[in-house]
Specification:
alpha+beta; 7-stranded mixed sheet; 7 strands; 30% strand; globular
């Protein structure tokens, strides 16, 4: 199962914004929704292609109410998320699955909320540099494309 997690913009109530609109509510109706982070909605799809397609279907809402789209594909990694851009590139065969682990956006996790992303590049020995923007108990890694890393 591929997991999609939509993280809402700080000033919006993501669940309300999505479920109060008929088209988004219908698109999400068949999924079991949960909230792994504050102001987020996560759901499982059958494949990476289905996850990307769902995001494409919800795009009008995503650009208005969502701060971050995270996709976890267990055939690529069980511990880290992929950005929507990277997941789309993998689905379209523009990036090979084994070439997704170099560039990361690392979030701190504080009281269930994703905080202050830090961009990191893995060294060749795959060792991840430590998150040092603030003292947090956990971190959440999001693999990104080179273009997202350079922005």
């Amino acid at each position: 199962m591929t997991t999609v997690c939509l993280v809402g913009e700080p000033e919006t109530d993501l669940r309300y914004e999505l479920l109060s609109r008929e088209t988004a509510r219908e698109a999400l109706a068949t999924y079991d929704l949960r909230s792994p982070f504050e102001n987020s909605i996560a759901l499982d799809t059958v494949s990476l292609g289905a996850a990307v397609s769902l995001c494409n279907d919800l795009n009008w809402y995503l650009v208005r109410f969502v701060d971050e789209v995270l996709i976890r594909e267990p055939s690529i990694t069980r511990d880290e998320w992929l950005s929507r851009t990277l997941a789309t590139a993998v689905r379209n065969d523009a990036v090979r699955r084994e070439e997704t682990d170099r560039f990361l956006k690392l979030y701190g996790l504080e009281d269930g909320r994703l905080v202050e992303p830090m961009y990191l590049a893995r060294s060749d020995d795959a060792e991840l540099p430590e998150y040092d923007l603030r003292d947090v108990d956990e971190t959440v890694g999001v693999r990104v494309t080179r273009e997202e890393f350079d922005d």
